Amino acid sequence: MSIAARKLQRAKHGNTSSTPSANLYVTPTSGSYGYGATVTVQVYEDSGSTPVNGVQFDMTYPTSELQYVSSSNSGSPFTATLQNTGGSGTVNIAYGTLSGPVSGAQLVATILFKVVASTGTAAVAFGNNCFVTEAATSNNIVSGKTGASYTCVPGAALTLTPASGSYSNGATVTASLYVDSGTTPINGVEAYLTYPTGQLQFGSISNSGSPFTTLIQQSGGGGNVHLAVGALGGSASGSQLAATITFTAVGTGSANVAFTSGGLVTQESNGNDILSNTTGATYTIT
Fold this sequence. Notes:
This protein has one helix spanning 3-13; strands spanning 22-27, 30-34, 38-46, 52-60, 66-72, 80-87, 90-96, 105-115, 121-126, 131-134, 142-146, 148-153, 156-161, 164-167, 172-180, 186-194, 200-206, 214-221, 224-230, 239-249, 253-259, 264-267, 275-279, 281-285. Strand 18 (214-221) and strand 19 (224-230) form a beta hairpin. It has one helix and 24 strands.
């Protein structure tokens, strides 16, 4: 077929060849996250049927709402790390493949942020230095970029009440554990506490009168208390009783009941931990 004939054929039927292209996007694209919560942002590229072997991007985020924690290519076919930095409002990533090119929708990176504001909107956006490399030509085929917008809401606090008091030897000390999540619906509370065995003896844990009607974990003794309650199938917000802990006063002196690491308050909409503050109690045993 002559060149003129091929041109005539394309004019009649159209050029069926397609230009390679790839999109960069993040997931989730939106959501509400409490103060202190971790936002897990996954970055994907989708090159359709075009094989690619490298991805590079820069991403911006507001430092007044989000704090960069880490980024990783775990679970991604782009296993070669060429660049992986974050902080001061920018994340820079460059990953490549070691076992051959890939196509279709592929996970590129997982980026973790911590929410550092109780209000506001955090826009996570791709910058201008974004590349998806076509394996056959080494051309950049990025044609679209879609970021995300997250809403920051107040975190939750765990508090023991009463915060102080005097108890005679042999008396029952009742410490009520309250959770306050403001207007954010929650469906679970977990707490770890310590107490001095020279002044207090563990008695019991109860969720009677609490909207968290499922007692998932209850243990105490040897100076430690561990409890977990849930509102399975429902949620609660505002200041709510989570559980009641009883002790028996023994010995004399000051008894500090304190929260330790490992506790959480579960946001109902996405399962994130939004615990941001804890306040224990100190009792005087006479």
